[in-house]
Amino acid sequence: MGQTFFAHYEKLVADQVLKPDPAQADIVRHFDQLASGLRSHQDNKPNLIQRLLGRDHAADAPKGLYIWGDVGRGKTMLMDLFFNHIDIKKKRRVHFHEFMAEVHEAITAYRKSDDGKDRGGRDPIPHVTGPIIDSTKLLCFDEFHVNDITDAMLLSRLFEQLFAAGIVVVATSNVPPDGLYKDGLNRQLVLPFIALLKQQTHVLRLDVDHDYRREKLEEQPIYFFGHDEEARAGLDRVWRNLTGGQAGEPEEINLLGRRFEVPQQAMGVMRIGFKQLCEAPLGARDYLRLSHHYHTFIIDEIPYLDRARSDAAKRFILLIDTLYDRGCKLAASFAAPLNELSGDDKTAFEFQRTLSRLMEMRSLEYLGAPLNDVEETDENSGEA
Prior knowledge:
Elements: H1 5-14, H2 22-43, H3 48-52, E1 64-68, H4 75-85, E2 91-95, H5 96-112, H6 125-135, E3 138-142, H7 149-164, E4 168-173, H8 191-200, E5 201-205, H9 212-218, E6 223-225, H10 229-243, E7 249-255, E8 258-266, E9 269-273, H11 274-278, H12 284-293, E10 296-302, E11 305-306, H13 310-326, E12 329-334, E13 342-343, H14 348-360, H15 364-367
Organism: Maritalea myrionectae
Protein name: Lactation elevated protein
GO molecular function, one term: ATP binding
């Protein structure tokens, strides 16, 4: 048997990757228990006699975890550490909004198919949940929230089938289950789902005094000017501070059917060059999807945006708009001071908004604000 998750966490603390925190350690103990339960459930397959007697193996799946608390307390970080540690092949980590968007897309596709063309006479939910059940045993949701009436109408039927199939859910949220869809239209529609969620997960509050993310960003400059060794060293310090000195690993992200490689990422932080992010054919929906995977963007070598870089400048404007609307944090190196960065009259008007947002994004108020939900719309679907 390999190292337990709690032992893994203790080593990260000993190595000063993480700061010791009793509240986080308590959550880790619950993750450790879940890991043990998942291993036992995976190893203890029902034998022939048990199957003949109708024993439901899915009913023996362990309860999941629903972890809630204020922003910057380490909820997502702990869930991601657990997700990377647990040795289960059929696992998925996804932003909750992205997951629900996929569900709606699957329902729409089903209703357009030959099987679904009987004017809604057939329930699309079994068709939608089937592939999820086949491919997933552990489903980890980041930023679990409900603010859409169409989601509220689906949740009970959707998750009844997922839980019945033995899928274990881990979720992070800024609100407890009873706070989901609070004051929403026809909130009674979501109440059965809330009851089901509380039945199928252990609800835990991560009650930490410190906003670690904000503290780490406040400790040092996050904008650097000039593409020299000093600027690179400054961003190296930001990276080490946010990730505890981890080297980071590359990761491939699915952007609307295309594979996009992030060269370096760890603990919700991505580091990437301007050229890869803004000179590639990416659009607002691509940037939005990336913002659902990472809470902090470190961007190297943002150049002087003259007329020769008009297309890249437009994408940069889209990127900053997306990060600002989502509340993502930014550290970057720039070729010139912010008010001298743009020399393109084609984007001069739009860049004034970008300039204002870049200045606000390094303020203490912005650094301490939570992430926001942003809906994907058709207007955001085009390439810049």
